[in-house]
Amino acid sequence: MLGLILASHGNLIYGIIDTYKIVIGNFPKEIKVISLGLNNDINTFEAELVKKIEELKDTKGIIILTDLEGGSPYNIAFKHSLREKHSTNIRVISGLNLPMLIEATENIENSDFEKAVKSTITEGMMGIKLAKINSMKDFEEEEF
Amino acid sequence: MAISFVRIDNRLIHGQIVTAWSKELKCDGIIAIDTEIFNDAILTNVYKSAAPTGVKVWIFDVKNAVEKLPQVIGSNKKYFVICKSPITLMVIMKKGLSLDNENNNIINVGPIHMKEGAKTIGPNVTITEDEKEAFNFLSTKHKIQFKLVPTSKEYYWDEIISENRRY
Lengths: 144, 167
Description:
The complex is a heterodimer. Chain A is built from five helices and four strands. By secondary structure, chain A is an alpha/beta fold.
């Protein structure tokens, strides 16, 4: 079992969970979410994030998906991923999108932490594409 | 036996969802059966482009499917058979074609969207009376499994029938 935390400014994480439920169905309750709202105290956010990391300390590793590289949720998560006092591995990924979330969620039962981190990033990046039809070659009828 | 997975999904081919199933069950290609899409060149292109990279897609109408499925079944490669409605599968089975597959002969069901006159039987699944009859027919030969993605919790048609007397 891997740990997964979603951290964003504002309602992005709640919106993406709502969308996830339409596309995939049930949202796993093991996944932690934390939002930094406009009027929230950043120290409270940090304390809550630390608490969530502690709750996941018995997992084989924690992936934290954040909205924006260099933003506060990202920076605070990154800082804690570098702290040695945490007993489990933490990897922070920026640029949260739906393909990334789907892939990360599929992998939480996975035991291979590094592989899960890699595929989460890959799917997130692969999800950004110009819409186009496949080349005509792919459309030729073939023998089965 | 070259059908590795049979699926009913209102969205037909849905990007990452198909990818998720193709990690569980071997998929060299997808046979999508839908007469509306078959008759529309633009829609055909859109759906052919929705499959994971490297997975070929054939769009058939029912007539084509009846002609060509025996070739698919005889192939050394592995195919997913996907359509939007249980009625399509019922029609194909009534024409004498086998939907036996390497996924324990299960017919898997994803989302069936809300429409007028339909009743919700589970999360993301609403069916009409006609679809109910089709599921009853399909369930005489196949286990009907409702499961959106490989990691989600599943339930079965016989459970719905026994728990809900309306059906």
